[in-house]
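Lab notebook: predicted structure, single chain.

Context: the supervisor wants predicted structures on file for every construct in the current expression panel, including those that have not yet been purified. This is the next one on the list. No modifications to the sequence; it matches the entry in the shared construct table.
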Amino acid sequence: MGSLCALDEPLRYPPARRDESVVDDYHGVKIADPYRWLEDPDAEEVKEFVEKQIQLTDSVIQQCETRTKLSETITKLFDHPRFGAPYRRASKYFYFHNTGLQPQDILYVQVCLEGEPEVLLDPNAFSEDGTVSLSTASVSEDAKYLAYALSSSGSDWVTIKVLRIEDKNVEPDTLSWVKFSSISWTHDSKGFFYSRYPAPKDGEVVDAGTETNANLHHELYYHFLGADQSEDILCWRDHENPKYLFGGSVTDDGKYVLLYIEEGCDPVNKFYYCDLSELSDGLESFRNKNALLPFVKLIDEFDAKYEAIANDDTVFTFLTNKDAPKYKLVRVDLKEPTAWADVLHESEKDVLESACAVNGNQLIVSYLSDVKYLLQVRDLETGSLLHQLPIDIGTVDGISARREDNVVFISFTSFLTPGTIYQCNLGTEIPNMKIFREIVVPGFDRSGFHVNQVFVPSKDGTKIPMFIVSRRDITLDGSHPCLLYGYGGFNISLTPSFSVSRIVLTRHLGVVFCIANIRGGGEYGEEWHKAGSLAKKQNCFDDFISAAEYLVSTGYTQPRKLCIEGGSNGGLLVGACINQRPDLFGCALAHVGVMDMLQFHKFTIGHAWTSDYGCSDKEEEFHWLIKYSPLHNVRRPWEQHPDQSIQYPSTMLLTADHDDRVVPLHSLKLLATMQYVLSTSLEKSPQTNPIIGRIDCKAGHGAGRPTQKMIDEAADRYGFMAKMLEVHWIE
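Prediction complete. Output recorded below exactly as produced.
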């Protein structure tokens, strides 16, 4: 927008070397990549670039008057007890708890629900700054052992350790080079299945989490308690398909280990099984034996998703999208692997989000209906409806129970509900739902806010749902600052959830907060996902732009007061939209975005995203990608628009040094490109809105981030937003 710069004076960007000699040939099209050198995180020149950008951003943040108040108020509201839903193993219950401002949640154990809770594992003891986090925790069937995975600085790499629950003694077991792994115990509690990559060769990796090389040759292992990792059994690998990912899971009856095989991020998988009871000496017989487990291939092609929900010996019930884009439940007997039967048919309108076998022969299923959750109890055998469970408009973000349990814990949240854990007793004739724990935020009064859902027509007429959260009784006169958030990819649904920082924005800055449920997500099942991926990716940007135009045309806001935000695939969304419609937004916050659409598949796990994006190695797909790749579409809007005062919105690109999911080079290359194209290369540029990067240290893609880092980042980015939109604090 052509507004006056909100800063004291326009920024002087640190010069960054352009190497004009780097030119790639994509199917006969020459594409320059002058900042290719920014791809090496260990190079001194890159470290210097990062340091100068951090200094520049700090100088901008210091001018943001509301930053201190945001930090203080968010900290105050964050300081409230939070609980996770308890889960049972043997006779013990386990749950996570944070008193408020502790860096990481602590795992507690209690002998019974009424018993005195004890600290079982406190991740805060592992580092002084809280940057070591617990990514997975799994309790053995007899509740004697806890296997847990620790991540450092937010990296996807984890180290698995084992704790004896009775005396809280840490065992010597240490498993390294683990990534994208669950931990699944065999019922004899002798050990567990986990997934890992081969250890790097000498000299390949200095600091796990900052490297960029591709993750290839995932493997499934079984670890015996007390043994060295070198003695673990290699259960499955596939040299011919180095990009495959493997996950092992033991069934509730302990009889089978199930093997899930994925290639990309699409909701499709192969499904193999191994009957552990048929191994002559159990898994022991595979020690020191150079043979993989004898898995039987039930599904050996990537045609749909198959998730085992329950089994009665050889009879398995699956949640699947096979011939059912909104998902259904099906059943098969392993003895007759070609005879599949529907148990719960696909719904006409609602997406079957999850199914959990409980209370012996029952299921709790959750549906997504226009981005709102419905909960039902159904009969496992017939799929017939037994009870609707009463829940408010919002999100069921966890059902904690196993098949043997008749007491189920359900976690619920919404825009105005910080968190409720329901205890549901299915042992009574009518399920008895009561509040087990309610999370209370001191000083938060939900009656001051209003939530609305609208359906916005996109460019092609498709109706896009959008939630709008505002202060109650606002006048639609275009005066309000507005924050529009989106994702739109990988079949992921954005559903209502509580956010302390967003509540502070709405309450104290008068911000209207919106979530657009654009195509590419899973809100309406697999058809909705496919309508925003591959050749149809542009639909995501059209949907988001239409949502922004709606907010302007209906009087919620105006372009110079409108900020867009998104992370990861949502960072790509923000990057593409400011290129396509720089005139429509006043500010943009793009977190850990995929910005180089021609190179992304070459780094860490990027190859898995080709299922959503395509790949520049293929000619047709290159032509999709080059049209919207944020890095390759930065233009000077004033040269293409009759209004020569049009410029890019004030932009903050956020990344972190240990993000080994979407490596920082994406944001660094886009930052250098935008600063050069819009300002550095010109004598007098209309671009007075700042283009800055917030580069976090000892942090990753987002998971495991300590509380203080979350607060600091929220205060920085929303302080920047407030300054750029010229919004003032309201007491």
